[in-house]
Predict the structure of FAD:protein FMN transferase.
Amino acid sequence: MTLRGSLARAALVLAAGLALAGGVRVLRPAPDITETFYVFGTLLEVETRGVPEAQARDAMAVLGAHFRQMHRDWHAWAPGKLESLNAAIAAGKPFEVDPALAKLLAQGRELACRSNGLFDPAVGGMVEVWGFHADTPPEGDPPAEAVLARLLAGAPKMTDLTIAGTTVRSSNPAVQLDLGAYAKGAALDLAEEDLQAAGIRDAVLNAGGGVQVLGDHGARPWRVAIRDPFEWGVVGAVSLRPGEALHTSGNYERYFDKGGIRFSHIIDPRTARPMRGVVSVSVLSDSGALSDAAATALSVAGEKDWPRIAAQMGVTAVLMITDDGSMLATPAMMDRLEPVAGGFPAPITVVDLPKDVAIPVCPAG
Ligand code: ADP
Ligand code: MG
C-alpha cells in the first residue's frame, strides 16, 4: 500500500498547547520558557514551567553545553571520541573513554543483550553501507550482496565489548559503534538530571520522536500526541506522568525509496538489511534510553515477535503500526492512549505480553 502522504516528520507533537485552544488560560507564577537546540541531527525543544526566567536560561545554557558535548563525543561518522574508539576497536586495541561514555556503552550492551541483539549499537558498519551515515537521505543503489555477507560474517555484537572502568576493548574487530538508536533517549535522561540539579521541577523535552517530562504542566500533565505515520494527523495522545519518556521509531523519518521499496534506517542485524513491515513503534517507560532502544528493537522484531522482545526488555506500554495500517497495542498502552478528535484512526488490536519469557542473562563485561 502507499503511504498516505509523506508529510509526517516528527512522530510526536506536544499537545499541551491544544488545551489552551478553547481560550482557557492558566494563571502561572512565571512564564513558560522555551529553548531549541540542535543535536543528533534533530531539533530538541526544552520548555520549563514555573521558574524565573533567569534560572531557566541558566539551566538552558548548561543543557546547551552538555548537548554540544554529547553531539561531538557520540557522533558515529564525524571526528570525535566515538570515531576514535571505533578506530581502536578495528585495530584490536583498548581505548580510554570518559565515564559518561563508559556508562552509556554499558547501558547499550545490557539493552542489546536483553533484545537478543535486535537493538545492537555494534552494527554501525551495516548502517553505514546502506548510506545512513550522512546528514541527508541516501541515494543510489543498495549495497552489493557480497558487502552484506561480509558484514554478517563479522557478527558484530555489543556483548563483544568489555568495559572495565573507562577502558573499552572489543574481542571482535567487526564491531563499529553507532549509538543513534538510543542516544536521543539517553541524552534526554541526562538532560532531566541537569534540569533537576538546576532546581527545575517541571519541564518537557521534545526531540523529534522522543519526549521526556519532569513534573507536570501546572494543573494538568504534559500531554503529547503520537503522530499518524500515514496522515497529517494524530493517532492519539498520552498524558505523561513525571519522569516518563515516550519514544517513537519509524521508517517514515529517515529512509530512501528505490524500485518501489522503502528502505528504513533501522537495520535488522540478522540480515544486515533494513527492517520491513513495521511503520512505527512507540514505547512509554520511565527511561529515555530504554524507550528509545526498545522502539528500535521492536521495529526489528516485527509484527509477530515484538511481544516477547518487549517482555524481555521490561517494557509494558507499546503501540505498533504496521505497513498495512494495523494498530497493535499492549493493555498498558491502551490504558494511557487517549483518542483525539473523534476517535482512533483505526481499530486497535490489544496484544497481551507473554508472562513466561526467559529474561536473557547479560553478564557485565
Ligand atoms: P530515530 O533516530 O528516528 O529516533 P531510532 O531510534 O530507531 O530512530 O534509531 C535509528 C538509528 O539507530 C539509525 O539511524 C542507526 O544509526 C541506528 N540503528 C539502525 N539499526 C539499528 C539496530 N538494529 N540496533 C541499533 N542501532 C541501530
Ligand atoms: Mg530508538
Remarks:
- The longest helix spans residues 288-313.
- The first strand starts at residue 12 and ends at 14.
- Residues 1-11, 16-28 have pLDDT under 50 and may be disordered.
- Residues 84 and 95 are 8 Å apart (CA to CA).
